[in-house]
Amino acid sequence: MVGRLVILGAGESGVGTAILGKQKGFEVFVSDFGKIKEKYKQVLIHHEIDWEEAGHTEAKILSANIVMKSPGISEKVPIVQQLKAAGVKVISEIEFASTYTEATIVGITGSNGKTTTATLAYELLKQGGLNVALGGNIGKSFAEQVAEASYENYVLELSSFQLDGIEAFRPHISVLTNLSPDHLDRYDNNYESYIASKFRIVMNQTEDDFFIYDADDIEISKWLQQHPIKPQLLPFSVKKELKKGTYIKDKNIILTTDNTNLTMPIATLGLQGQHNLKNAMAASTVATLLRIRKSTIRECLENFQGVEHRLEKVLKINKVMYINDSKATNVNATFYALDSMESPTVWIVGGEDKGNDYSELLPLVNEKVKAIICLGIENQKIINVFGNVVDIMVETQSMHDAVQVAYRLADRGDNVLLSPACASFDLFDNYEDRGRQFKDAVRKL
Question: For residue 47, what is the domain's CATH number?
């Protein structure tokens, strides 16, 4: 027995860690303050792992040698504070699982674009013939994959919360797609603290490792000037030419590393829009570093159609396009979505506000949005900001109602865009549930 591992939170990361912990000889106990989903309960029972729900038994938790805290649980909850006061180590799933694999790790973080970049990087490596898995904040938990398979490479999408719980975790290649204020409610409304969390991805990297980042992002550049880091820097930019890294010239992507040059026309990319161009640049740099052939990279970028719930075209009904961007859980993501709209748009927005500042959306809303449908329990902030900008504003509290109203308001040639700029937990299980409900409601029109 290597010790007592307690896991707080029985979601994807918690249950995956429990499986890996048991396999490695820990005495494992899983505690969830809420109700555990049936599918996860069955996994715990199958693996004969001890668990509790609807509350924490302090004695059972404080007897831990090590605690894995699920990323959704704040550092400020009483049980976590008690553990820290007792000197018990509290880490994330990413930290725990990484100690049990020798695989090459690509870690991808950022306020927006990380899911698309991670999924695209994974596809590039898989098409290039590498033995690779996708995990972290997306799909199957990293810990469970370490327990049940032997991958040589992992592409991990990493949230700031997952990075808050690392100590020795060291990706060979790290990517920071961009920075914009998000989750500030968890960082005492301090943007600097949130930025520092994102940059934890590089803290254990050495000169043998690589850091890929957006050179056009002012906050990233500012942070790098103030905090020199060890990994080799490979920036990407759509504004300036770079000696090393990836940039745009004559409508081509130009990628240069120490031993490779790659040129590819922008027009042939499967994903359109400037933000997707950046995601493609970052993912191609990852693939190039891991020696994927140029022809494979080109072919994959041409065929990649994007990820579910991110500017996903659902259906065209009566010449109106319905677009699911449920994954837009912050203002910056919605900015990209509105910016990419070419036709008058009925915009469905709202949910659980994370301290959003909507003002940067005002010019885009003024230019592109003909009507706003609020979808949330508390919509006053949205009404206050945009009430004078659009002629029509409707409040709804169910996806069915929101889509019915949108159907009545949209004319031929318009778009109906679900891009909430908020978390989903006031009315939905998560952003996936919100996106699927939107698609179901559209298909029933």
Answer: 3.40.50.720
